[in-house]
Amino acid sequence: MTIRQMILEQLQARRQGYTLARPFYTDPDYFRVDMETVFYRDWLFVGHDCEIAKPGNYLTLQIGDFSVILTRGRDREIRALHNSCRHRGSRVCSAEKGTTAKLVCPYHQWTYDLDGTLQYVRHMGDDFDKSKFGLKPIHCESIEGYIFICLSDNPPEIGPLRETITPYIAAHQIRDAKVAYKMSIIEKGNWKLVWENNRECYHCAANHPELCKTYPEAASVTGVQGVMDDPEILAHWAHCEAAGLASKFVIDPGGQFRIARMPLIAGAESYTMSGKRAVKKPMGPNTKMPGIGALVLFHYPTNWNHFLGDHAISFRVTPIGPEETEVTTTWLVPKDAVEGIDYDLDELTHVWKFTNDQDRQIVEENARGIRSPAYEPGPYSAEDEGGVMQFVEWYAATMESRLPECETSLSVVA
Known about the structure:
Elements: H1 3-13, H2 23-26, H3 28-39, E1 44-48, E2 57-63, E3 66-72, E4 78-82, E5 97-99, E6 103-104, E7 111-112, E8 118-120, E9 137-143, E10 146-150, H4 159-169, E11 177-187, H5 191-198, H6 204-207, H7 219-222, H8 231-241, E12 250-251, E13 257-262, E14 294-299, E15 303-307, E16 312-321, E17 324-334, H9 345-371, H10 386-402
Antiparallel strand pairs: 1-10, 2-3, 2-5, 3-4, 4-9, 6-7, 7-8, 9-10, 11-17, 12-13, 13-14, 14-15, 15-16, 16-17
Cofactor: Fe cation
Protein name: Rieske 2Fe-2S family protein
Keywords: 2Fe-2S, Iron, Iron-sulfur, Metal-binding, Oxidoreductase
């Protein structure tokens, strides 16, 4: 029996409403199949347009075995390229970010334009055709300031995601924002544990004192159950939509993404210790109005977000190994907001810096317990962990639909 067949059988036999079996969180072979079946085939959030705002700006990132460059060309187009020289395979860019007129491989100085076309080589003979040896492109799309890539030759349709979320996030003008602060932490736990922890606030009261000053613990705010029947949420949507802000709960039929505008604790305007806005300038004209809460967007497998009236926060999940996950948090503010005048950086970042570190500790303790041979799948709370169950159902359904397929080429766009 192959590892794929074994995983498929376990998923089909799993008990509904219970956590996954131990190997799904610990086993290197299961992790490899996760990467091949999910991360190398789905659209992944990788960064923001404003991070590569000018021609020549670039970012690099590692997704499993794939090294990726994001560039802004002289034509102002954003592109994703495989960071592997077409000569002997060296990484072309090793820095995390930078600005350059050309992409020059440090090994033998093969030189590429920002769009990946090969422009200069030495000593390759008169019959060498440079047009056949450009950096390989990766499917890349920008949606309202969010950059998504897909490593597969045949990416899923991105239209439904674009059409669903654009009316919601456009009001926050992320394309015209700037990065106030960005940080990454390593959580020593499987990527699914990171997501499961995120998808419930059952743990919040005991673990997140800073966040709980402004963020409600109600399962209808964090999860999926009860959201359409919660009178507070219904009133909040009416309040926000009167100001021209799309707000109502929408979930992808396949469960991969969902978006809704949710209330904060009464009187709170932002994720700060005081509950007051951290940034004096609004994210957009329609976000000036008080009481708009937080627009929350979740997109599996890589991204969750909170859009507030004064700033936005994106979180990117990048698996590193079976029991190691990088979580990158980016705080975005209006591009004309000045640090020290319009906002204090510590006030802006305090709540989520603490919350992220608390979540890291939670995930790592969860992972340590799951490593025990005594671990067995346990029941989720139907009242408080509906969001977790929804994530696990999405994961299981995605894997079950793809695992029977033949081993496929793991992506490179020719």
